[in-house]
Amino acid sequence: MNLKTINYRNKIKDFYSLYRAEIYSAAVGMIIFILVYGYRALNPMNISWMYHGMSSDFTQHYLGWKGFRNSAWTFPFGLMDQLTYPDKVSIIYTDSIPVFALIFKFLSPILPNSFQYFGLWGIMTYALNGVIAAKILKRYMNSILNVVLGTLFFTLSFQLLERMYVHSALAAHWMILIPIYLILIRRELSFKKKITAWGIVGMLCPLVHSYFILFDGIILVGFIIAVFTDSEGREKDIKSRIITSSAVLAAFVSAGLFMLFCLGAFNTGIANISGNVEEYGLDLNAFFNEMRSGYFPEYLPYRKGHRIYYLGAGIIILTLYTIISIIKERDWNRFKERRSTVIALISTFVIALVVACSPLVTLNGNTVLHYSLPDIIMNVWSVFRNTARTSWVCIYLIFIFAICADCGGRASRERKTAVLIFAFMIQFLDMSPFILERHGKIITETNVKEFDPHLGTDYLDTLVASHGIKHIVYGPIYDNSFKYLTGYAMSRHLTTNVFRLAQGSSRNNEELFKAELYSPDESSLYVIKAEDSAFAYDDCGVNWLETGEFIIGIVGEW
Questions:
Q1: DSSP 8-state symbol, 361
Q2: Segment holding 526, helix H or strand E
Q3: What is the pLDDT of residue 441?
Q4: Angstrom distance (rounded) from CA 12 to CA 6
């Protein structure tokens, strides 16, 4: 064995020794993904579950990728025109994970026609959630076993399980954990590294999902608070703290705005980026009992909520155990030593909770507080309609506290291991109905309906070829039942006029559709639902044909 081989093996051993916890946590995350969602999702040519019906959102994300793939490259490079022809829309507004959409569009010439990257994204997300959680817990726990046990709560949380394959871009909770980790390691980062780190985070936010701009922006406020309150950090005086804080804020904001520009977020005129923040605010009861999410809340009075923000019985028990342990030991020195970090994390928690609750604060559906803010603040706030999601920041801070806030006390490593195992068993039991529901939905093989029975692929192919169809025009408003026809259109490189966007579409307009019918295009196929037959005008120059679920029209004879 030569010296080069020996050095190479030693480097591998050193890497393994240094990052064992991260490696194990990534492996556990990937195993959990496969056990819950099945291995078929990893097949990039398996697209049947894109139309599975577990979530219309997920079909939207897949078709958004197809439309983006079919569109010509432009600048800004995130724009496409295949789904909202002739208007352009950004890939951001279809929630199709822009970073992967860009990568695989570049590789498109060598990819099969039927290709999806959402399975790959899913397993990568589970692995990264485990890795970043491990890096955080390693700072406070000196047992590799306990670190890996702790990461189980992050890779099998209600929040992650609910988002994946409903809104998989928002399952990237490592995008929340990374900035929290930056708060913890700020003393180890030079001025240049702080700017670089937050610049990368700011750039990643739009590339994954724009909601992370809000989440990570709140955590950035906590980072700045940590810098200002840390007398033992690299910034020794007020001037250097102001410079550092201003620099990281500028890096985050400028990088985020630059990437939004490059993705075409500001070149889209048809998305309606507004909403009612009061409609989707967090109920203060949600952490403990939301939507009967788990096994134990089945036995409690519950409030019907919009999404799942339930902590889980295991984390609740672990949190109570940690609080009792801290009070019992009364060893406050370890918290005083990390005073600036504690202040920063508590501040982050409070800010995130205030934003999540929205101006309409409720408890179990009953109004506790309703306040008003200036219009300029409400307009910015309304861009992020579902502000309850901001509570994910709070939830993961609770996870970190529950798992490792009592570490460094007098409790033995073995006792901590036993407590973590017990808490996770309770957490798993609590989650079991939800896990089984998700597992059953995602792995069930179904005969996916692609089109209306009267509009089979062969019939449509004949119609498109004989009449030179290039566009499909839906009306009077977009309906989710059009998704199968949109899938057909994207597979044949046809365009559609309207699509369900994350923030709505201004082309959902009856008068606009009527105007298009009275100046019909010979290369267009007009489609309306059977119940909208009143829009099948006899005098508009379009010849209509009833096909069952749809009424279709062309210019010329059938």
A1: E
A2: strand 524-529
A3: 74
A4: 10
